[in-house]
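2024-03-11 09:14:02 INFO receiving multi-entity request
2024-03-11 09:14:02 INFO entity count = two
2024-03-11 09:14:03 INFO echoing inputs for audit
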Amino acid sequence: MRGRRAFLARLAALSVLVPVRAAAQGFAGLATEAEGFTLPRPDPTFSFPADHGPHHDFRIEWWYVTANLKGPDGTPYGVQWTLFRSALAPAEAEGWDSPQVWFGHAALTTPERHFATERYARGGIGQAGVTAEPFAAWIDEWHLQGETLSDVAMAATGPDFGYDLALVAEGPLVFHGEGGFSVKSDAGQASYYYSQPFYRAEGRLLLPSGTVEVTGRAWLDREWSSQPLEETQEGWDWFSLHFESGERLMLYRLRESGGGAYTAATWIAADGTAEAVPDGYATAEPLESGEVAGRQVPLVWRLRWPERGLDVVTRPVNPNAWMGLTIPYWEGPVSVEGSHDGRGYLEMTGYE
Amino acid sequence: MVLGALLSGWRRAPLQLVTLLAGLALATALWAGVQAINAEARASYDAAAATLGEGRFDQIVAADGGAIPRETYVALRRAGWLVSPVIEGRRDGVRVVGLDPLTAPGGLGPVDLDEGEVGAFLSEAGAVYGRADALAALGDVAPAKVVAPEVAPGTVLTDLRVAARLLPEAGIGRLIVADVQPLGRPALEEVAPGLSLRSAQGAADVGRLTDSFHLNLTAFGALAFVVGIFIVHGAIGLAFEERRPVIRTLRALGVPLGPLMAVIGAELVVLALVAGAVGLALGYLIAAALLPDVAATLGGLYGAEVAGSLSFRPGWALAGLGMTLVGTAVAGGGALLALARMPVLAAARPRAWAMAGGRRRARQTAGGLALLVLAALVLWRGGGLVAGFAGLGALMLGGALMLPPLLDLALAAGARTARRPVADWFWADSRQQLPGLSLALMALLLAMAANVGVSTMVSSFRVTFERFLDQRLFADLYVQAEDGEQAARIEAVAVAAGAEVLPRVGVEATLAGQPGEVLAARESAAFEANWRFLDAAPEPWAGVWAGEGVLVNEQLARRSGLGPGDRLEVVEGTGLPILGVYGDYGNPVGQAVVGEALFRQLYPEAEATQFGISGADPGALAEGLTSQAGLPAGAITDQAAAKRFSLAVFERTFSVTGALNVLTLAVAGFAMLMSLLTLAGMRLPQLAPVWALGLTRARLGRLDLVRAVMLAAFTAVLAIPLGLALAWVLLAVINVEAFGWRLPMILFPWDYVRLVLLALVAGGLAALWPAWRLARTPPAVLLKVFSGER
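2024-03-11 09:21:47 INFO inference complete, emitting structure
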C-alpha cells in the first residue's frame, strides 16, 4: 500500500515543485507532465541491489516502511519511516547545485497518541540519500540501513518521540502490477512498484512516558515514477494488511474527481507467491466517517475480493492518526476482522 | 445658531485660532515625526528578524570567526542537530544572504514551503528576492529578480546555491538553530569542535542598544509635544475665558448646558483634527528629512540596517491624530470643565484669568520642588534606562515649574534697585505680566535646557572620542588584506622596509556569559605610549606581553562587574587576571585584549587580515605595499583618513539630535511670540495711564522689548544649570545604561554664552512685532480706556 505513498510522495514532490495547486492538476499537482524525466515502461527488468538505490532520472521515488507492533502488555503500536526523493531536474550533481530534494516523514501511533514529524534536505551534500550496497537510506540522523535490504536497522527521532527497530526479512520481494509495472489509471499512468512485506520487527519505542520494548511485523514499499497520477485523480486510500494466516494484501483505490475509483490489489501468499489484479476485482468501501483534524475522513472500511473469499472490515487503532505536516494526510495502523483477521496500515490522501 | 455664535469668537480673535492650530500642529509634527522614524526602523528590524532569523534563533558560528565547512554542517545534521546553513557576504554594497529553504526554521525567508513557492526559489535559474533598490544595486547577477518588500533593507535573499555563486569567497558563515530539536542529540563540541553556540540573546543585545536610541528620540518627541501642548493650553484657556459673555448670553437665552458643552467639545475635536492633519504632514516631512541620518547612525553605531526611505503607515497617522486629540483634551479639559461649572451670570475676566495669582503659583512651586526631589531619588536609587528617562522627565518638568517663582524673585530683587518712578513701574509691570508669560517662558526654559544638555553631551562625547581615536589610531597606515596569503606578503614587505607591523586579529567569543570579542596585541612600545586606561593595575602591558593577564573594555567591565584584579575566563578553563580597563567608545560589545603569543595558542586558526603599519616614510611604504604585495590602493587607508571616517560616523550619529534641538527651540520662540501678542491686547488698561502720564508710545514699545529680552535672559541663565543637570544625567546615567560607557563631562562656556545670546535674540524677535504694534497704537484707542469702554 505504499503505493499510495507513491502518491503521497508525488504530491509532496509536486508541492515542492509546482507553484500552483490547481484542482485540474489532481491531488497536489501530482499529475503534471514529465519533461525530460524517464517514464516507467512495461515488462521491467529489475537489477538488485542496484534498484534499491535511487533513480535520479525519475521525478519521484520513495522508501516507505510501516510497522505494526505490540508492547509487552499487548498494546498495539504503529510506526512509519519514509524517505522521499523529488527531483527538480533528471540529474544529480555534487554540492549545492544538486537538483535533488529529499524529505522524510516519521510517525509513531499509540491508541491514545499520534506523533509525526518531517525533515527536508538537499541532495549532493550527503545530508540525505540512499546507497544500494551496502544498503543505507538516510536523512539527517534518521536511517534505514544494513548489509542488505533483508536485514536493516530503522531509527528516527522527533522532538517528543523516537524509535529504533531491527527489521529482518522472512520472505521474498513481491512485485505489484505486471512484474513490478504498476498501472495507476485507465489512461496508462504507471510506476515501478515492489515491496518487502515479510519483515519481522523488534526494538524499542521512545515515548514521553518512557521506553517500550516492541515486536511485530513491518512492510517496505519501493516505488518510483515520473508522472504517476491522472489529472482527475484526487487522492487515494492505500492498505497494506498482514493476516494471521500468514497471507498479505496490498490494495489501493485511486479516487476520481467524478466519484469513481480505480482499485488495484495484490494477494500475497505466505510463501511470497503473489497475484496482482487491476481494477474490477477487489473493492474498498468506506462504512463510517469521522472528524479528524477538522475534516471528514473515512475511518472504517469494508474490503472485498470475492474470488479470494475476502470480506473484512478495518478499524483504526487511533482515529486521530493525522499527519499534520507540510503535506497533510492520514496514516495509521488498523485492525482487521472478518473473513480474515489481522492488522495493517492505512494511508489516505486528498481529504483536505 | 449656537455654533455660529461660538465660531464668531474665533473670528474676533484670529490670533488665538492661529496659536491654537499652530501649537497643536507643531506638537503633533515633532511627536509624529519621531514616531515615524521609530516605526520605520522597527519595521526594518522586524524584516531582518523575519527574513534572516536575526534575534529570533540561536546561531552557531566558528569560534575563530571563519567559515564552517560543509562537511561539518552535514555532520551536525546527521547527528540530529536541526541547523540551517547561511552563506552571506557583500556584493555591490548589498548584503547577500543565501538560505537553505529546505532546512530553514519555519517562516524564515521570503518563501513558504507550504505554498510551493519554494520551487521558484530552488529552480535552476536562481531567483534573488529583495527591495527594489537593493535589487537594482546588485547589478545583473541573477536571471530572476523578485521584488519582495518584506525583505530587510539593503539585503537580498536567495538560495544557498545562488549565494555560493555570487560570493565565491564566502563559505557557510553561520548556522541557524531551529527552536525545536529532536530527542537525544549529542553535545555540540562532540560533533563539531571549534564551533560555538550563540544564543538569540546576543542579537537581542543589539536590539536593546537600538531601543535606547529610539527611546532617546521618543524623549525628544515627547518634550516637543509637551512644549506644544503648553502653547495650546494657554490659547484654549484664554479663548474660553473670552467666550464667557457669549456663553452667558446663550445660557440666558435657554440653551441647555449639555448640548452647549457638546458643541464646544466637538469644535475642539474638529480643530484638533485639522491641526493634527497639518502636523502629520509636517511630521512626515521632518521624518523623511531625518531618516537617512538615523539610518546611517543605526548602521554605523549598531550595525542594524534600516531603510533610508520612509513609507506611509496608516497606523502611524491614526496614532498621531490620537496623540493630538489626547493633547487637546489635556490642554482644554480644564477650561471646558470651568465653563461647565460657571454660574450662568458670571462675568468674563480674561485678564484676571491670564494673571491668575498667588495660590496657583504656590501650588506650582510645591509641585516643582516635589518633582525635583523625585528626580533625585529616581536617579539615585533607580536602575535601568527607563528609570533614567523617568528621572530626566521629572527633572525637566520640575525645573520648568520652578521657573515662575524664581523669575518672580529675580524681578522683586530688581524692583528694590529701582530709584526712579519709571523704573519702579517697569519692574512692577513686569511682575504683573509674569503669570501670562510663564507658560511661554517655561517652554523656552525647556528648549534651552535641552539645548545646553544635549550640546554638552555631544561635545563631551566628541572630545572624548577624538582623544580616544588619537590613542587608538596611532599607526601611519591601515591595510586590509583579502586573505591569509596576501596578509603574509604584506607583513613581509613592511618588515623588509623596516616598518613596525601591528596585526588586528580577533575572534568572536563569549565573555562573562555575553557575546564579545577577543583581540590580540603584538608587543609594541606604541601601545604603552598611546593607550590610556580608565583603571589599571601597575604595569599592565608587561603582564599582557607575558601572557599573564588580560585587558578589558569598559563595556565588559561594567556589564560583568569585573575590574582590575578579578579573573576573566577568556576561553573555557583559561582564567586570566584583568590588568586594565580601557575606554572603547562606539563599540556595542564586550572586548578583551590578550598578548599575541597567548592568542596564537588559544586560537591557532585565526588569521589577521587587517594591519596597522608604522614606518619612517609612510608614503614610500604605501607605494611598496601596492607594488610589491599587490595590494589595491583602496585597501590602504592613512591615519588621517581613518580618523576622518570615524568622526564622520560620529557626526551623523548626532546630527539628528541637533536638528531636533533647533526645532524645539523654534517652537519655544513661537510660544513666546504668541503669548506676547495675546497679552498685548489686554494690557491697554495698564498702559493707558502710563501714557497719559507722559511716556510716549515709542518709549512704551521699547520698554516692552527690553522686558521681553530681560525675561528671556533670566530664563536662559536659569536654563544653564538645568541643562547641565540634564547633561550629567545623559552622560553618567543614560549613556552607561544604553551603551555601557560613561563619558567625562566637559564644560563649554562659550557654547552657553552663544545659547544665551540666541535666547535673547529669540526673545527680542518674539517681542519685536508686539512692541512695534504698541508703538503704533492710535492714541484714540488708549483714550478709550478712560471713556469706560472696558
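2024-03-11 09:21:48 INFO post-check: Chain B is about 65% helix and 15% strand.
2024-03-11 09:21:48 INFO post-check: Residues 472-644 of chain B form one domain.
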